[in-house]
Amino acid sequence: MRAITASFFIFCFLVPSVLAQLRHRFYVVTCPLAESIVARVVSKHVLLNRNVTAALLRMQFHDCFVNGCDASLLIDSTSERPSEKSAGPNASVRGFEIIDEAKKELEIACPKTVSCADIVTLATRDSIALADGARFTVRLGRRDGLRSNPSDVNLPGPTISVAASIKAFNAKGMTLMDMVTLIGGGHTVGVAHCSLFQDRLKDPAMDPRLKAKLNKTCSGPNDPSVFLDQTSPFRVDNAIYRQILNQRGILRIDQNLGLDSLTKGFVSTFASSDRFFREKFVEAMQKMGEIGVLTGDSGEIRTNCRVFNN
């Protein structure tokens, strides 16, 4: 574990020459309305459904952690060619219609210009701001990938150990603080089905009032879902960290972040300062959005986010 920790702060996954091709205001000449078009589409959907932020956060995480942020998750499966969408961990990913709508408008405004990968990044960024989260800028210039294979999908699940989660995030160039920030920040607006936290309901340390409430909810049919943040489930804030400190973390990985010696300090710090959490969440989101990106002449700019051009 010491060796893992020592290497955790070495961010070498992203090649500097590649990242240099990502930049702010990338579409200022080729598609000046790109960011405003995406923002308008996302705003419309958030007004109709406040769960959109959680959906887009999950989408970007699941895309970036499999072969980089290249919109490979958006490709539809066919009988001849299954895609990442058909992998088990991606069965619960939602919000593809939002990306489709933004892409359709962008193809009218500036054809073959804005990548699906950049749309996902922008849409997620905008949805966070609309959930009372921090407002931040992102660098653009990603291109869309040419591979989408379900066998590539190996994502950390809700019962993963802290040590295994560290290894998974470290492999993507993310620090220990990034990991705690992204897990908590993603779950502060997320939901989970009862089948995903049955192990926690057997934990004698769980807050008894929460356990009673969850047991009652989970006794219903069709695998009910619950909010992971019990006080502000539609806001990207630090509330979930305070709940973790009080043994009210619903998912095993969430609660273990508050117990493990390597991560509990970060949980306490975030729990005590919403401002600090927001600052670090922005940094982690910007970094995650640049994992393994394709730029320059690599990949393609899809005209339909669900299918490869050829």
TrEMBL record:
GO terms for molecular function: heme binding; lactoperoxidase activity; metal ion binding. Disulfide bonds join 31-110, 64-69, 116-305, 194-218. It is an enzyme of class 1 (oxidoreductase). Binds 2 calcium ions per subunit. Binds 1 heme b (iron(II)-protoporphyrin IX) group per subunit. Substrate binds at residue 156. Residues 1-20 form the signal peptide. Pfam families: peroxidase (PF00141). Residues 21-309 form the Plant heme peroxidase family profile domain. Ca(2+) 2 binds at residues 188, 229, 237. Ca(2+) 1 binds at residues 63, 66, 68, 70, 72, 84. Keywords: Calcium, Disulfide bond, Heme, Hydrogen peroxide, Iron, Metal-binding, Oxidoreductase, Peroxidase, Secreted, Signal. Heme b binds at residue 187. Its cofactor is Ca(2+); heme b. The active site is at residue 62. The record marks 58 as: Transition state stabilizer. Coiled coil: none annotated. Removal of H(2)O(2), oxidation of toxic reductants, biosynthesis and degradation of lignin, suberization, auxin catabolism, response to environmental stresses such as wounding, pathogen attack and oxidative stress. These functions might be dependent on each isozyme/isoform in each plant tissue. Belongs to the peroxidase family. This is peroxidase.
